[in-house]
Q: What sequence folds into this?
């Protein structure tokens, strides 16, 4: 897959240079456009399995009946809202290539996430204690893209309606989760013990193709306000990998947690999700970012 991504990147660079090189003898008109909008990626198993997963917790409790410690198990419900819409921002350039045609290149960043908090009772250091449990998840990416725009309807100095087709490479995908537990001391309600687990994992090389339609209204000859809507189709799947996990639980806490995601046992360093069938088996998690994309732009021509 890395070979495919490398070839795709080289193809993008070649097309860009070919388009610009063919016009060195002609007068070229450029525009630069700050962009702001939303992307609604599918995210597959992240939304369907991971964010809504319960949290199995096993703890040790001391009982006063002389039988010593016993293992108890709790399944804590604290689902996160699915990551549907996220904010996208970036910068786009267009180069006029003859009448009604433009070469497009851009760079943008996207981010979406959620937070949820519950109050419950959990085992901690041999006792059941009041606990505040906060869960957070965040997904983000960087991408660059290039493509072609064709004006369909034009009223000079008034407006344009256009279609365009983009090739996108998402080269930096980050997924982060945190689980924050605040345990209250049963003998002193003013004292609390905080334990935090954090997960960070990454992916790269997700390819997408995006047809879109849009328009722009001119405020000045050199300034317009634009908007376009398109749908991004993933050309390949990606897997999150190389997870970094930090955890400050101590042995004396006598708490074990089965998190919604963990490293797969197949030696790939990829992240898996907790199976529905049991609470110990993690399965392969392939993802894509198919979804609608809508952008608002301010176009400055020069």
A:
């Amino acid at each position: 897959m890395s070979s495919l991504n490398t070839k795709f990147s080289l193809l993008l660079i070649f097309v860009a240079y070919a388009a610009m090189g063919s016009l060195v003898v002609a007068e070229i008109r450029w525009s630069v456009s700050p962009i702001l909008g939303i992307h609604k990626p599918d995210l597959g198993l992240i939304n369907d399995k991971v964010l809504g997963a319960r949290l199995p917790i096993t703890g040790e409790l001391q009982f006063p009946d002389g039988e010593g410690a016993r293992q108890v198990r709790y399944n804590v419900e604290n689902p996160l809202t699915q990551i549907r819409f996220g904010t996208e921002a970036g910068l786009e350039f267009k180069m006029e290539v003859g009448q009604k045609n433009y070469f497009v290149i851009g760079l943008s960043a996207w981010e979406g996430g959620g937070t949820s908090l519950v109050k419950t009772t959990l085992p901690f250091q041999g006792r059941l204690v009041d606990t505040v449990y906060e869960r957070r998840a965040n997904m983000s990416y960087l991408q660059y893209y290039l493509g072609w725009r064709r004006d369909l309807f034009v009223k000079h100095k008034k407006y344009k309606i256009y279609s365009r087709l983009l090739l996108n490479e998402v080269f930096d995908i980050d997924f982060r989760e945190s689980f924050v537990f605040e345990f209250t001391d049963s003998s002193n309600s003013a004292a609390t013990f905080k334990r935090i687990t954090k997960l960070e994992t990454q992916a790269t090389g997700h390819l997408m193709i995006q047809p879109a339609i849009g328009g722009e209204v001119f405020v000045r000859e050199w300034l317009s306000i634009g908007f376009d809507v398109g749908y991004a189709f993933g050309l390949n799947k990606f897997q999150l990998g190389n997870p970094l996990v930090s955890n400050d639980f101590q042995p004396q806490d006598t708490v074990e947690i089965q998190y919604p995601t963990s490293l797969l046992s197949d030696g790939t360093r990829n992240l898996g999700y907790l199976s529905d069938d049991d609470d110990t088996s993690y399965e392969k998690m392939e993802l894509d970012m198919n979804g609608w994309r809508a952008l608002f732009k301010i176009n400055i021509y020069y």
